[in-house]
Here is the input.
Amino acid sequence: MKKILARVATVALALFFVAQASAQYPERAIRIMVPIPPGGAPDLVARLIGQELSKVFHKPVVVENRPGSNGVIASEITARATPDGYTLLLGPEGLVVINPHLYAKLRYDPLKDLIPVASVFLSNFVMAVNSSLPVKNFQEFIEYARKADRPLPYGSGGNGSQHQLIMELLKSRAGIKLMHVPYKGGRPATTALVAGQVAAMFSGASIVGQIRSGKLRAIALSGEKRSSAFPGVPTISEFYPGASINPWAGIYAPAGTPAAIVATLRTEVNRILARPEIAENFDRMGGVEPYVTSPEELAALIRTQYASYGKIVKDIGVTLD
Here is the structure.
């Protein structure tokens, strides 16, 4: 009986300290891990949200870029961090719904070791080509690729990235020959496209500035709907029904993070996303908009996309070590 009472007392004391820590959260700086180099939408959004959270919490919020391995590095750091709300991860949904299908051996389980805190933004990838390529629109690109003597090289933010998956999906549906050239993030891939090292690529915010400057030409969108940021640019699903990807990003915390802290973070992030000036900032990134969901909606979305992306990965045949 004494042992049982001692265990109960120990558990009660631990819960008390957790409750106290949650009530006082945050007491020090928070870091947000970002799985891409500076310049892409997840990085820009993380910095914007971090800046606003620091005003709310009166504590520093530091963005730490840890690119590599299709987000595995940043994800593993977060998954293995102390679950106290001071290490978060902001990244695309692929971290939890695509990577488990790509990698045979991960040293963590994205679905079990990471808790979804909040959805953050919804985007629409833009397919762009170097302005010197002799194509003016999507249909001309498909014909050009079909007639090319050798597969056209296309860039991506990395092996297994959504940039690669949507292009491989297009390649399969259109029956064209393309060669994948992976880079460490959307920004380096965009630089390669501007330099003419690759012929085309799908990307998000990292590519928008180069399109607006005229160095690149936008010819298609990855999502189901057209974007006000690129009037007149069609979606690939208009030509190949079902061939679409609407990337989104969320914030995650290590499993075991107290529910009260997760709820506090979700509430404050959602308040930030509801502000008109935040939506305006997102819009300037090109095809990016705030994306607010309830915990139940977010959980259901992850389950659904885990299954759908699993099928895409299997059909395309992409695997990584």
Q: What stands out?
A: The chain has 13 helices and eleven strands. Residues 126-238 form a domain with the D-Maltodextrin-Binding Protein; domain 2 fold (CATH 3.40.190.10).
